[in-house]
Design goal:
With 168 residues, this protein is mainly α.
Length: 168
């Protein structure tokens, strides 16, 4: 076994490996079934399990990239990516491109970006709410105004000050 074929074998065994040729063949077959159903006036058939697994593998692997890995809502990002792929599954045209892996990776990438923006807006809203609430009054009315509470107040103020002005 050569080094090149050994490397190829490792990728095929990987949980996140998507064979682009097999993926393309499955999409072409699915597209034919969709066109056939449209001609008969029927609803589009369900996406095959293999195509769904490919979407999951692409989204999961992309979520391990350094610019996405540290988000606590990575599962939501993956779900958004898969949902967008399922919405766009019929839009892939094998006559225009023979690289469905790249096409769906881009769709998932932008779904991740949209989720991050959405979460940042929600976070900014939470901090804006904190900014409008007088935390010091709440703390002074608590039973014991210990140092831990003061640290919490300082941390909250610091986070509010760091909010990107475009989200305010």
């Amino acid at each position: 076994m050569t080094a090149k074929s050994s490397t190829r074998a490792k990728y095929k065994e990987s949980a996140h490996y998507v064979n682009n040729k097999e993926f393309l063949a499955a999409l072409i077959d699915y597209r034919a079934k969709v066109l056939e159903a449209e001609e008969k006036g029927e609803a589009a058939p369900r996406v095959t399990e293999y195509i769904g697994e490919c979407f999951l593998k692409i989204a999961t692997h992309l979520s391990y990239k350094s610019n996405f890995i540290n988000y606590s809502y990575r599962d939501e990002m993956i779900s958004d990516g898969i949902e967008n792929c399922l919405t766009a599954v019929q839009k892939f045209d094998p006559e225009k491109s023979s690289n469905p892996f790249a096409y769906y990776t881009q769709i998932i990438y932008f779904a991740f970006i949209r989720r991050i923006q959405k979460e940042k807006k929600q976070q900014a809203t939470k901090y804006k709410l904190l900014e409008n609430v007088n935390i010091e009054d709440i703390v002074s009315n608590s039973e014991d105004g210990n140092a831990d509470v003061n640290e919490l107040v300082e941390m909250a103020k610091k986070h509010v000050d760091q909010i990107d002005p475009k989200y305010r």
